[in-house]
Amino acid sequence: WTLMGNRACIKTAAAAWASGFLNAALHTANTFSIPLCQGNTVDQFFCEIPQILKFSCSDSYLRQAALIVVSACLAFGCFVFTVLSYMQIFTAVLRIPSEQGRHKAFSMCLPHLTVVSLFISTGLFAYLKPPSLSLPALDLVVAVLYSVVP
Questions:
Q1: For the whole model, what pTM was predicted?
Q2: Deepest of 9, 96, 137, 148, by most Cβ within 10 A of its Cβ?
Q3: Domain boundaries defined on the chain
Q4: 68-77: long-range pairs with CB below 8 Å, 24+
């Protein structure tokens, strides 16, 4: 039996690509539209949005708040879809009659679930931590954990 047909698979992939492109386009357009005036040395190994915003000389609070709301909606939608997908996967795996088959299926799913959990938790920490916790070394470690390790 098939849990997900070709049409659903194509729609899911298209939604993932579209939401990722929309999020990237919004952040790129916003980044290129803010005036930067406080140097050009980024304390990261790549240009993270919070690091770039430290260089801004204008008060872009409303623009940033709107981007955060849009990004949060996209991220929440992806999170809900991921949780629902894993619920279906685990339900299907639990229906496998042999214990060896269930063990093999879970051994395939759990590493992926671990990587997804690491990505989501470190990404949330990186973007939602209070500014008082913003230490360059901690920011770098968290950025590596959510961008390179997964």
A1: 0.65
A2: 96
A3: 61-132
A4: 70/23, 70/26, 71/23, 71/26, 71/27, 74/19, 74/22, 74/23, 77/19
